[in-house]
Fold:
Amino acid sequence: MIMRIIYLLTVVSLVFFSCSEKKAEEKKKEILQGVITYEIKYLQTEDENSLISLLPVEMIYKFKDNSICQKIEGWGGVFTMMGIVNYPKKTNSALLKVMGKKYHFETSLESNEAFGFDEFPGMKIEYIEGETKEIAGYKCKKAIAYINDTIPPIELFYTEDLPIENPNRNNPFREIKGVLMSYQMSFQRIPMVMNAVKVEMKNIDDVEFLVPDDFEKVSKEDLQEFINTLI
Structure:
């Protein structure tokens, strides 16, 4: 009799655990679109770089069904930069709008030519087991990026609870499969720290992942020249 009761309790426990796990996976799959807001802090002072006070203080990261749109604005709206991953079209685009001029550089998702933040050649990632941190309501795992002898190791925190395939296509940390919620990188040799402060689950219009028709298609070299002139 006792063995029978133990058997029944074991079966009930297994069924309950299985259902709970299934519900968690289903909930995760339901989260397919939304917006992450990042706060940007710069590691240089205005004395070191006079542009600091004019640079963007936040980045908006929109996602939907593996498509991504990252957007920053600076100089009081004088310039806007966007990185758009259109997953259905398998394209990756960098867009620049400055003083009425609109340019974009496009490549395929398989290409390594994406234009964006500075690369860290030779970088190695160490994943730290058992150390987590909650950021913007999400449990985040820790990793450390080792760059070179001149750049100190960088702490990274990422979450695996937002189902986006290759969410870091447009930053140097492509190896990390989770969405970065706190990290450091540089743009045009200006070092910055990005911290997620808010995650909103909301409907995102497909048009957010399209390049507007009035943007002129240019080469990667031309886009870099425009950036150099700007900063």
